Structures are given as structure tokens and as C-alpha cells.
Amino acid sequence: MAESEPSQLSVVALLSGVPERRLARGQVGTVVEQLDNETLLVEFSDEQGRAYALVPCRRTELLTLHYVPEAA
């Protein structure tokens, strides 16, 4: 099965930490905007939906998460 590229509103996880923003590897966020062909703006929120970080991330640094099976 091919991995899908993250796009707007994709739920993603960081493949490596961003210590200067206090984000650990595996932190989950939502893509809110495509900045260019290689960079996406990702919002990280708490359990109440309050954003605590808005970080530009390279597509290669993100893993798209899936909650339902995809067709093979």
C-alpha cells in the first residue's frame, strides 16, 4: 500500500522532535496550510482544542495518520 502525502486537514505525527518549540517526536497535529511544495503549516492543539504551537514542517518530517482502512 502506498503511503499518502499529507495535505490540508491531514492528521500527522512528527518524525523528529522540534525542541525549540517543545514538540517531541510523535507529537500529533493537523495540517492547516500548504506554504510551498515542500513545507506545510501544522497546528498542534491540546485536548480542549486550544492551539499551543503553529509550526512550518517539511513534508518529509511528517507521517500521515489514518483512522480507517484504505483500499489496497
Task: Describe the protein's architecture and organization.
- This protein has a domain at about 1-45.
- The chain is about 0% helix and about 40% strand.
- The protein has no helices and 5 strands.
- A 5-stranded antiparallel β-sheet has the order 4-3-2-1-5, with no helix packed on it.
- It is globular and about 35 Å long.
- The mean pLDDT is about 90.
What is the overall pLDDT average?
A: 92
Overall SS class: mainly beta
Stretches where pLDDT is under 50 for at least 5 consecutive residues are none
Q: What is the tally of helical segments?
A: 0
Query: Which bin fits the share of residues in helices?
Result: under 10%
Q: Strand tally, please? A: 5
Largest sheet, spatial ordering of strands: 4-3-2-1-5
Order of helical and strand elements: EEEEE
Strand percentage lies at: 35-45%
Assembly type of the shown chains?
Answer: single chain
Q: Mind summarizing the main beta sheet?
A: 5 strands, antiparallel
Radius of gyration over alpha carbons?
A: 12 Å
Coarse morphology: globular
Termini separation comes to 6 Å
